[in-house]
Amino acid sequence: MQLRLINPNTTAGMTATIGEAATRIAAPGTHIIATQPAAGPVSIESHFDEAVAAVGVQEEILAGERDGADAYIIACFGDPGLLAARELTRAPVIGIAEAAFHMASLISTRFSVVTTLGRTAIIAEHLLAQYGFAHHCRRVRAAEIPVLDLEEDGEAAVARIIDEGRRAKAEDGIGAIVLGCGGMADLTAEITEAVGLPVVEGVTAAVKLAEALVGLRLGTSKHGDLAFPRPKAFTGRFEHFSGLTPAA
Ligand code: 5HY
């Protein structure tokens, strides 16, 4: 199967980190294609960044439809543009936040999330409520690290994530930790070792869920709100979205 792994920010180093972590966990026969939009924010740390990145995600889905992708992963913890992306394809589309919440709820009755900046914690809280996992999550904690510090100042960033993870273990009455950023895709083993709790990471969780859905021949339902968008004209720099017709 061809699994298109979309890093919604435009930092190539982070796309590579995410792609390598996914490839390491993928089953034989799962071909990971790690991509990022041609245009957009170098990191996603606000509602505005998300709004812009969500358009890039749609363009990557359409590119995957041309390339014959069997499933898609949106590898940003805000799951930007997830429902819109599902409208554009029959293939499964999985957001790493949703994937991590599902997996964490299968191994613990309570978990906490450790994300990057405090200002993005609300985005994870909104998703927890939207996906129906709010009662499973004790706290969304922030290590207060800019996303790109994971690429540029990894050691210090990891130390802050470990500190926050240890605080969550001591204070939150939880059984597991969820890592709240795609850029943390390569940190699972190190954080598990340092904190001493099961750690769920969204990119690798999403790879396994995508493989499961494709293995079950389950794809995005085209009945109801995730049906293909009605073809229409788009103007200006979005003209290339005009007359979108569903893949045969
Ligand atoms: C992510 N930002 O996973 C989110 C994390 C965050 O560029 N990739 C990003 O802080 O919301």
Distance between the termini: 18 Å
What bound compounds does this protein have? [(4R)-2,5-dioxoimidazolidin-4-yl]acetic acid
Calculate Rg over CA atoms: 17 Å
Widest beta sheet: strand line-up? 2-1-3-4
Let me know the number of strands. 8
Helix-strand topology string:
EHEHEHEHEHEHHEHEH
Question: What percentage of residues falls in helices of 4 or more residues?
Answer: 40-55%
Please outline the helices and strands:
Layout: E1 2-6, H1 12-25, E2 31-35, H2 47-67, E3 71-74, H3 82-87, E4 93-95, H4 96-107, E5 111-115, H5 118-131, E6 137-142, H6 149-152, H7 154-171, E7 176-180, H8 188-195, E8 199-201, H9 202-215
Parallel strand pairs: 1-2, 1-3, 3-4, 5-6, 5-7, 7-8
Helix pairs in contact: 1-9, 4-9
The structure holds [(4R)-2,5-dioxoimidazolidin-4-yl]acetic acid.
[(4R)-2,5-dioxoimidazolidin-4-yl]acetic acid (5HY) binds next to loops.
Describe this structure in words.
This protein is of the alpha/beta class. It has helices at residues 12-25, 47-67, 82-87, 96-107, 118-131, 149-152, 154-171, 188-195, 202-215; strands at residues 2-6, 31-35, 71-74, 93-95, 111-115, 137-142, 176-180, 199-201. The strands form 2 sheets. A 4-stranded parallel beta sheet has the order 2-1-3-4, with helices on both faces. Helix 1 (12-25) crosses helix 9 (202-215) and helix 4 (96-107) crosses helix 9. 48% of the residues are buried. Residues 9, 43-45, 76-78, 115-117, 120, 147, 181-183 line the site of [(4R)-2,5-dioxoimidazolidin-4-yl]acetic acid. GO terms for molecular function: hydantoin racemase activity. Pfam families: Asp_Glu_race (PF01177).
